[in-house]
Amino acid sequence: MDKIDKAILAILQDDCTTPVSDIAERVGLTTTPCWRRIQQLERAGVIERRVALLNPARLNVGVTVFVAVRTSEHSEAWFRKFASVVAAIPQIVEFYRMSGDTDYLLRVVVPDIAAFDGVYKRLIRDVKLSDISSSFAMEQIKFTTALPLDYA
Amino acid sequence: MDKIDKAILAILQDDCTTPVSDIAERVGLTTTPCWRRIQQLERAGVIERRVALLNPARLNVGVTVFVAVRTSEHSEAWFRKFASVVAAIPQIVEFYRMSGDTDYLLRVVVPDIAAFDGVYKRLIRDVKLSDISSSFAMEQIKFTTALPLDYA
DNA sequence: CATGAAAATTCACACCA
DNA sequence: TGGTGTGAATTTTCATG
Asked: Which stretches does DSSP call E strand in A1-152?
């Protein structure tokens, strides 16, 4: 991946509605080779998808909660169950398997504490979890879907 | 925001390249009124932007680290400094002010532990921080930019 | 809001260097 | 790989009902 590809990706990460002709001009190409590079980046799986980002406050999900989970169960079947339950809860937007003291970390978006309690109850009802600790975010100071291109 | 608007948003959150004519058909409208609704959702700030999502592994940032920060400083000037330093580090993709024992939480994406150390050193060089604890994610099981539309 | 349609823009690709 | 040209698709706007 050369400098031009990175420049193209930087533009698309910021605004994927930018016409190919504009992108081409900004990276110093004409439209066709630029278009071909974009196609190739899609085929190679570098560009996964193009999505609209919505405003959390306008959708009434201004509260973010991080949920740290510990468990005694470590079977494959249990994990698949856990993963499928999480996948079905739209309020859970991120889900990581961690190293260290917490086994899993979830990010949950909800309107308020009461709504979080609903998600929490649903989670513990559907999955056997040993220990859960929730931390509330007061403010989202930075959030970007743009990944650093420095290592590619 | 009625049911049709939500249906439109659900489609655009999933794939913003969907032609307006397709969206219209799926929500039971013709293109013109559907197009007007989309324009209005943009003007109202519900739709903030349209971006390309890239593959972390392909960009060599497959490792996610959560950094919990505590500080003794709580002045406005210090916070602005902290926020500007974080804004300038592209490896930091999320940044929250928390309630509870940790004051701030960062999500950092890097290729490996060594690269994380670089980001870590840069952070503590530029900002005065009392206590930092880093947790490594072994696996990203779920990650979506699609917000739940249930509360809107 | 539906229909129909036109103008402007952008995409997608064949072909050449 | 990059460039030129062109037909197709899409967006965007504007009539009328």
From this structure: 47-54, 63-70, 92-98, 104-110, 131-143
Supply B14's token pair: 């999933």
Query: Are A61 and A112 spatial neighbours (Cβ–Cβ below 8 Å)?
Result: no
Is B142's CB within 8 Å of A92's CB? yes
Give the rounded percent of residues in chain B with a pLDDT score beyond 90.
Answer: 93
**How long is the CA A42 to C1' D1 vector, in angstroms?**
18
- Would you say the C-alpha torsion A74, A75, A78, A84 has a positive or negative sign? positive
Q: What is the pLDDT confidence band of residue A150, given thresholds at 50, 70 and 90?
A: very high
* Sole residue written with tokens 């959030």: A143
**Which DSSP letter does residue B147 get?**
P
CB A45, CB B56: distance < 8 Å:
no
Tell me the whole-structure pTM to 2 decimals.
0.94
Residue A123: name the closest of A149, A104, A142 by CA. A104
Domains of chain A listed by start with CATH number: 3-43 (1.10.10.10), 57-136 (3.30.70.920)
Instruction: Check whether B138 has a pLDDT greater than 90.
Output: no
Give the C-alpha separation, B134 to B106, whole Å: 9
**Per-residue pLDDT at A122 exceeds 90:** yes
Name the residue in chain B with its Cα closest to that of A103: B137
pLDDT at position A74 is: 85
Distance A9 CA to D11 C1' (A): 24
> Residue A90 carries which side chain, given as an amino acid letter?
P
Reported as a single tens digit per residue, the pLDDT across A78-105 is: 999 999 999 999 999 999 999 999 999 9
Task: Give me the mean pLDDT over the B4-12 stretch.
Answer: 95
Q: Do A47 and B52 touch (CB under 8 A)?
A: yes
Contact A61 B151 (CB under 8 A): yes
Q: Kindly provide the residue ranges of all beta strands, DSSP E only, lying in A55-130, ordered along the sequence.
A: 63-70, 92-98, 104-110
